[in-house]
Amino acid sequence: METETSFNGDYGPRRLNVELANICNLHCSYCFRADENLYSSHAEFFPIDLLRRVIAEARTAANITRINFTGGEPTLHPKFAETLRTIGDAGLTTSFVTNGWHFDRVWPSIQENRNAVSHVAFSLDGVTREAHDRWRGKGSFDRLVRAFSRCYMSKLPFGMKIVIRRDLVDQLEQIAIFAARMGAASLHFVHVMPTSNALADDSALTLDEQRVVEQEIAILARIFKMDIGIDVGYYNIDETRPPCAPLAGTSMNIDYRGRLSLCCNLSGFRGAAEEQDVVADLNVESFASAYARFLSLVALQLQRRKDALAALRAQALTPDVYTGSPCLFCLQSFNKIPWH
Amino acid sequence: MSSDLKGWLPVDAVVVDGRPGLWWMEMLDVSLAEPFFQQTVERAKTDGTKRGELFTEFDVLLQLEKELESVPPTGFIFHSSRCGSTLVANACRAITNSVVLSEANAIDKLIARFFTDAADGGVKESVYSVFLRSVVHALGQRRRGNEQHLFIKFACTSFAQLERITRIWSRVPWIFLYRDPVETIVSNIDDPPTWLLDDDWRVLSSIIGAKPSDVAAMSLEERCARSIGSFYSRAVALANDRSMLLNYNQLSVPVISSVLEFFKVSPSAQEREAIARASGVYAKEVSGTRPFVADADAKQKLASDLVREMAGSWANDPYRRLEEKRK
Description:
The complex is a heterodimer of chains A (340) and B (327).
Chain A: E1 15-19, H1 35-40, H2 48-62, E2 66-70, H3 80-89, E3 93-98, H4 103-112, E4 117-124, H5 129-136, H6 140-153, E5 158-164, H7 172-182, E6 186-191, H8 197-202, H9 207-223, E7 227-230, E8 251-254, E9 259-261, E10 278-281, H10 287-314, H11 321-324, H12 326-333
Parallel strand pairs in A: 1-2, 1-8, 2-3, 3-4, 4-5, 5-6, 6-7
Antiparallel strand pairs in A: 8-9, 9-10
Chain B: E1 8-16, E2 19-26, H1 37-46, E3 53-57, H2 59-67, E4 75-79, H3 85-93, E5 98-102, H4 105-116, H5 123-139, E6 149-153, H6 162-168, E7 174-178, H7 181-190, H8 194-197, H9 202-208, H10 212-217, H11 220-238, E8 243-247, H12 253-262, H13 269-279, H14 296-302, H15 305-326
Parallel strand pairs in B: 4-6, 4-7, 5-6, 7-8
Antiparallel strand pairs in B: 1-2, 2-3
């Protein structure tokens, strides 16, 4: 999951989203990472040497200025401090998404590399201990609040990310109040990725429900100073511009194996064999040549979407959520749906 | 950021560049001595001291709530306008180590958002409720360190949001002051307050239960009569064991002292003397030197036929029911 995916008119800095680890210490049922990777595979971590080389090449080839770390859980990387140092040494900035469980442990690394870390994004599942820990395990909420306090007291900007499950729909304002009370700089909501029928039935919102929620989030965004938004993936059939940063060519994703792919939601998802979204293995190919193919795939995918929308328009049909949502459209067109 | 606001008070609720927020002023050394909070703000602006001022969004309140020590509310004063509520507020001010917030813009404008900007059950209703609690926390902060009591006198229109307010502070006792409808209307017509003249008719529209365009077309007499009638009816419906109803014609030093006791404050002999002094002067005058004159008879004599007609149509019946409830 990226840390800068809210689409509010610009696509953010040119950046790489690097999956630092394929594993996670928590097991959230709605996670769109592959179970096989997270829990069945042996742990794999992004190599530091490869990170250094890719950063150098990507700066030249794609003018990237920023690296976001994702996972799995990025703080599980055994050389987490060194990854941060690598970014600082390159004169870039970084942020990472974390569940906060290991934040105390990595806090000294963050402080040592404070110049490189622009902010931290924490995944949240509820604004009470009971609600959050129901999804993330006992003790998770307390660790998270402690992490918020560390950041706030140290003036390290931090944000919260929360998946809008059905049971959270009537708590949006409490979530915003909680985030503001904790001193968060941002609060980003994201719709559920329906990774199973059961999850879709239990937790995902219908398109109409999504729209109501999006309006409420927009209201909260006007009231609060902190940056409140909804991450891309929401229904958006505006064809005048790319619907997300990857399709605008400004955000590139590299999985824990070092493979450049179009979107972090897609790479290696649950045994998806074709992996049409994977552009290149950067272990054996330069970023420059991979990036050229990346841009070709972006153009192809944008055209696919345009054609799909045009076809529906010709039949006077309204695009359903699987076409209107850019995330679901890509997942579908890359044969990742139905979920394996 | 928020800890830097110790000693600063939110002096107004404003909208800047389309964003709702608060206007703050550095008031660490300023005593809230005037009958109305905004009079204190004006004095602070012109007393020759260079004071910081700034705008913040509401978010900062939530941080302040964690960081600033504040006096919890002791009692709330609601009223139907021009009925002695300022006298009672001034009496509260006579209590040692008390803070009296009298019709502070930051509070009453935020409450007004419940009328204008928060549909029932929507996200804004909850958010504004939390902000309201936080604004009171910020205004009630212990700036000197020895504050013990916090009394809040609301604008009369805020009484229409009593249920929301008491949902936030369910255990805080409150009083409702009111007066004979004819006398109230005459006083308001003689010197019309802003709440009766506001261009944004949504607040009165909600209170009266009429369309904003209809409110705009009403005479002042009708607008006032229907408003106070609504306040009386609300008081009849919502008065309970945590509330006290008080008619202007009851006001006396012993009665005001009983209000304080209702707020669980026992005035000392010295404080009773101060209350007596405060009761002897015209309540709303800043200098506190203009003698108070009971004017019920004069107001009755001044009442026009229209005033009596409007009172009869919209306010007399709920007033009678309120009196029955009080007795």
